Amino acid sequence: MSTGAGSPERQRLFIGGSWVEPDDGHYEVIDPATEGVVGLAPEASRDQVHTAAAAAREALGAWSRTSPDERAAVLARTAELIRARLVPYADLAGAESGATTGTARGMQVGVAAARFQRYARPEPAEEPIAPQVNEAGPFGRAAVMGALAVRQPVGVVTCVTSYNNPWANPAGKIAPALAMGNTVVVKPAPQDPLSVYRMAEALEEAGIPPGVVNVVSGTGPRAGEAAVDSPDVDMVSFTGSTAVGRRIAEVCGRDMKRQLMELGGKGAAIVFDDADVPSAVAGIGTTFSFYSGQICTAPTRVLAQRGVYDQVVTRLAAYASRLPVGDPRARGTLVGPVISAAHRDRVESYVELGRKEGARVVTGGERPPLDRGFYVAPTLLADCTADMRVVREEIFGPVVVVLPFDDEEDAVRLADATDYGLIDYVWSGDVARAFRVARRLRAGGVGVNTVGRNMEAPFGGFKKSGVGRDVGSYALHAYSELQAIVWAG
Predict the structure, then answer these.
(1) Catalytic annotation, pick one of 43, 96, 204, 262
(2) Which of 189, 236, 260, 350 is a plausible cystine mate for 163, CB 3.0–4.6 Å?
(3) Which CDD domains does the protein's record reference (predicted)?
(4) Distance CA 48, CA 336 (A)
């Protein structure tokens, strides 16, 4: 199949090791920058999704019994194939998602290859437990009881992926799930599914057995619902909105299916008076530029101590106003489009809501003067208060809100005044205070004087930002069940 970004191919589903025509036809995948058609994605029927899950169930026994080294070899070959095709894969990803060329190559396709390579490193699945001396009693003679905690595959895993990274997000689910001996059904986001089919091609070429990986797509809720409610599915791994995550959890709860949920975020960036303000502004400013703010980990709420509040607002406004907005393929562009016209309208409606709530629009707030594409200007809202919806709710666009705070207690209170708790940030010259505040925040992760990530650290959220943890070895734990084996010595 072609990997060209402009190809009008009719993509087929990948089920049971075969490329299958969809029962319900195709739909257009739209380039957010040009509004042109990137390709035609397949619309799977409910029966086809259930067939994919059944294929994964059939393949589970043999795949789960392969050695970790055999599974690792397939993942390593997949990583090599992805790296070899980085440019065409990134061209397609950029066309589907609107990401800039640098983001598509480095943070989408490049990270996907790195994730397959990471899980091509087998880890022990058994952990010895200290022996226990049991006295004679109703359960038998006195004995020294040995035990092992053994990680077993969960089974068939449905991976429902997000539109904001059509390579790294699916790879972060598929690779550790396969490494643990699971089989998968992947339901990509409807906006940019073609990249996930290219990933399936790479896996197929790398030697993945039929049925171990299946990919089904669709525009409405039907395909996603079928991928969750299939009786052959044991676990659902989902990245997306809290509202959809709640519905998935309700369905999973009926049959006690395992869940891994990475949901919304409203990251607070606490900037103390003694912070390196230029460094803080540079970190926070990535919200405006990196994938146009469509990232759940973005520091979208800035809590600036009063002594540096005006400086933070001024510097953030200057940062935003200097960012080139436009064609993501053009050299020098830092802010591309958001994913769709509907999402652009949603982001703009939040900016207007902020105005009505009393926020001051310092920069942005108007649609960029471009002939086509779904663009939103980097926007800074200052003089906000904790009760405003623009402060409490996830906007998922290049919009940053700023609030003042008085002291450490005030900062923690404001940071936690949201339903979300994915990743927060603390900037302070006093590292002891920064770590003290970090430990008090109700967030799954905290960046201290950085927006960088350690890709072996556990990733996930508190509150309505998710359930469970992945990344690094924690992902292997997430896609496994613990079994205890006990014996008398």
Answers:
(1) 262
(2) 189
(3) ALDH_CddD-AldA-like
(4) 35
Q: Concatenate the DSSP letters of all residues of 275-343 into one string.
A: S-HHHHHHHHTHHHHGGGG--TT---EEEEETTTHHHHHHHHHHHHHTS-BS-TTSTT--B---S-HHH
- How many domains are contained in the chain? 2
The answer to whether residue 252 is catalytic is no
Domain that holds residue 342: 268-456
Mean pLDDT for 106-133 is: 96
- 3 within domain boundaries: no
Q: Is the pLDDT of residue 453 over 80?
A: yes
Same domain, 351 and 482: no
Q: What is the pLDDT of residues 319-368, one digit of tens each?
A: 999 999 999 999 999 999 999 999 999 999 999 999 999 999 999 999 99
Model confidence pTM above 0.85: yes
CB 255 within 8 A of CB 277: no
Amino acid found at 269? A
Taking alpha carbons only, the member of 197, 225, 232 closest to residue 46 is 225
Tokens 């040009």 belong to: 34
CATH number, domain containing residue 336: 3.40.309.10
149 and 61 in a common domain: yes
Give the model confidence (pLDDT) of 160-194 as tens digits. 999 999 999 999 999 999 999 999 999 999 999 99
| Cα separations in angstroms, 452 against 97, 332, 429 | 23, 22, 17
CA distance 360 to 362: 6
Residue 322 is predicted with a pLDDT of 95
Task: Give me the torsion for CA of 429, 433, 439, 442, rounded to 10°.
Answer: -70
Tens digit of each residue's pLDDT (9 = 90 or more) over 54-85: 999 999 999 999 999 999 999 999 999 999 99
- DSSP letter (8 states) at residue 209: P
Q: Is residue 7 part of a domain?
A: no
**Which residue of the set 159, 252, 296, 384 is catalytic?**
296
Q: Does a structural domain hold residue 17?
A: yes
296 is catalytic: yes
